[in-house]
Write a structure and sequence with these properties.
This protein folds into 2 domains: about 5-125 and about 250-320, D-Maltodextrin-Binding Protein, domain 2, CATH 3.40.190.150; about 130-240, Periplasmic binding protein-like II (D-Maltodextrin-Binding Protein, domain 2, 3-Layer(aba) Sandwich). Helix content is about 40%, strand content about 20%. The chain contains 12 helices and 11 strands. The protein has helices at about 45-60, 75-85, 95-105, 115, 140-150, 165-175, 190-195, 210-215, 240, 265-280, 280-290, 300-320, and strands spanning about 5-10, 35-40, 65-70, 90-95, 115-130, 155-160, 180-185, 205, 220-225, 250-260, 290-295. Helix 6 (about 165-175) links the parallel strand 6 and strand 7. The longest helix has 22 residues, at about 300-320. InterPro entries: BUG, Bug_dom1, TAT_signal.
Length: about 325
């Protein structure tokens, strides 16, 4: 794939001068175009959030923002490219739950994610919606847990791949309920949903963007959602409301920079991202594809990354998922 085919230049639209949103010490930032590296193909939820954020930052700063898709090696290739970039704040990684799970699943990594990247801000939350084939004789999460325990090994759930949010959400459900279900990994959320629609698997702990159209079309049954209700699907209860207190699983995206990035640049980036994520236009666009804006301070996002790494390490260990 050529660089031209995997890069989208977000046009500079003019707008608010940088001085109106940046700390005084960061007036010189950005000094050139900013690149957001997305370690996934175009069109997915992480990519969509990056494009909306990039467009708004471009407007605020009157500066070009490039979205560069660098998929491969389960999001490692894109992350490594940013790790090796100049730590000046102009090359950033749009990270995801994969980067918090990798230490527990991969035998070796070319970096230590928590130590070699600087947190900037959270970006988006992608709820997990428990979807069932219409033929499955359950109507809520409590009934699902009871049915799975009464029929060990007879239910299969599909995921977008080993170690992603849609896989680990299912493993968390199993660990909390004692359900015995088969995991069937697919190469992406779309193939997994196709398997559910064809009743080749009976369940999917689907990300919001994948689940919402099918739930709205009533081709699948939605049993519960995590972490919170969606305004576009207001009747779907949260997992605790549906009968599983304490359950919380979702996918997410955020922004990190290479280690050594100046604090002034991080502060400027965080301020711009926070503004972008709070704009009504952003909130509306995120909601349309089943996501929720998730602005955080750099410190809050750093604590979140650490907590996510620890949380999923326990789930992976309990599920006995082997390292690859």
């Amino acid at each position: 794939m050529t660089s031209a085919s995997r890069r989208t230049v977000l046009a500079t639209l003019g707008g608010v001068a940088a001085a109106s949103i940046l700390p005084a010490r960061a007036q010189s930032f950005p000094a050139k175009r900013v690149t957001l590296v997305v370690p996934f193909p175009p069109g997915g939820p992480v990519d969509l959030t990056a494009r909306q954020i990039g467009q708004k930052i471009s407007e605020y700063w009157n500066q070009t923002v490039i979205i560069e898709n660098r998929p491969g090696a389960d999001a490692v290739i894109g992350a490594q490219a940013v790790q090796r970039a100049d730590p000046d704040g102009h090359t950033l990684l749009v990270c995801a739950i994969h980067h918090s799970v990798h230490p527990s699943l991969k035998a070796s990594l070319p970096y230590n994610f928590l130590e070699e990247f600087v947190p900037v801000s959270g970006a988006g939350i992608f709820p997990i919606i428990v979807c069932a084939h219409p033929s499955l004789p359950v109507n809520n999460v409590g009934e699902l847990a009871a049915y799975a325990k009464a029929n060990p090994g007879k239910l299969a759930y599909g995921s977008a791949g080993v170690g992603g949010g849609t896989h680990l959400a299912g493993e968390l459900f199993k660990s909390m309920t004692g359900a015995d279900m088969l995991h069937v990994a697919h190469r992406g959320s779309a193939p997994a949903m196709s398997s559910l629609l064809g009743n080749h698997v009976q369940l999917m702990f689907a990300d919001g963007p994948t689940a919402v159209p099918q739930v709205q079309a009533k081709t699948v049954k939605a049993l519960g959602i995590s972490p919170a209700r969606l305004s576009i699907l207001p009747d779907i209860p949260t997992m605790p409301e549906a009968g599983l207190p304490g359950y919380e699983a979702y996918s997410w995206s955020g922004i990190v920079a290479p280690k050594g990035t100046p604090p002034e640049a991080v502060a400027a980036l965080n301020a711009a991202m926070t503004r972008a994520l709070k704009e009504p236009e952003t909130v509306e666009k995120f909601e349309k594809f089943g996501a929720q804006p998730a602005p955080q301070t750099a410190a809050q996002f750093g604590a979140f990354l650490k907590a996510e790494t620890e949380k999923w390490a326990k789930v992976v260990a309990e599920a006995k998922i082997p390292k690859t």
